[in-house]
Amino acid sequence: MTVTPREMRDAMGCFATGITVITALDAEGRPVGLTVNSFNSVSLEPPLVLFSLDRRANCADAFGDGKPFAVNVLGVGQQAESNHFASKADDKFAEIPFEWQPGNNGCAMLNSAIASFECITDATHDGGDHVIIIGRVTHLNQVEGQSPLLYFQGRYAEIGG
């Protein structure tokens, strides 16, 4: 049996995921970012996380071995941030309507994120039409008592909602 991309996407949509905005710096040191829901923990010791990056992403060159990146976990009510960074715009920071600041590693940290992870790329692996990026967490922050923004069957969702 052959599985089509549409069948795979629909079946994977049954797995609820959190939503992140992942940021990095391009070759000129400018901030870049994109919305990603394929993010998870790999290891606690050492602290490692991973995400899958579409090879066609306009900022894919900003991610690679030894390069810094930041993961901003979005909370309920942050659909606008998710949509903004999911757009195909070349410069998503040109007229960004959200407050942010550079993190310790220079990558953009969204002030409204419910958790954030600053990372250095530890390894990259081939993943078909994606690259699997493994990052070593160097700094993190979280806001207590916040609910995550979720994605389920092609729509935003909330816990219990």
Question: Which keywords apply here?
Answer:
mainly beta, 161 residues, globular
Would you write up a description of this structure?
By secondary structure, the chain is mainly β. It has one domain: Roll (Pnp Oxidase, Chain A). The chain is 10% helix and 43% strand. It has 2 helices and 12 strands, in the order αββββββαββββββ. It has helices spanning 5-12, 79-86; strands spanning 17-18, 20-25, 31-36, 39-43, 48-54, 68-73, 100-102, 108-110, 115-127, 130-142, 150-152, 155-157. The strands form 3 sheets. A 7-stranded antiparallel β-sheet has the order 3-2-6-9-10-5-4. A 3-stranded antiparallel β-sheet has the order 1-11-12, with no helix packed on it. The mean pLDDT is 94.
Gyration radius (Cα, Å) is: 15 Å
Summarize the helix and strand pattern as letters: HEEEEEEHEEEEEE
CATH architecture: Roll
Distance between the termini: 35 Å
Largest sheet: 7 strands, antiparallel
Looking at CATH, the homologous superfamily is Electron Transport, Fmn-binding Protein, Chain A
DSSP strand tally: 12
Q: Count of DSSP helices? A: 2
Q: Estimate what percentage of residues fall within beta strands.
A: 35-45%
Q: What is the CATH level 1 assignment?
A: Mainly Beta
Q: Mean of residue pLDDT? A: 94
**What class would the helix/strand composition place it in?**
mainly beta
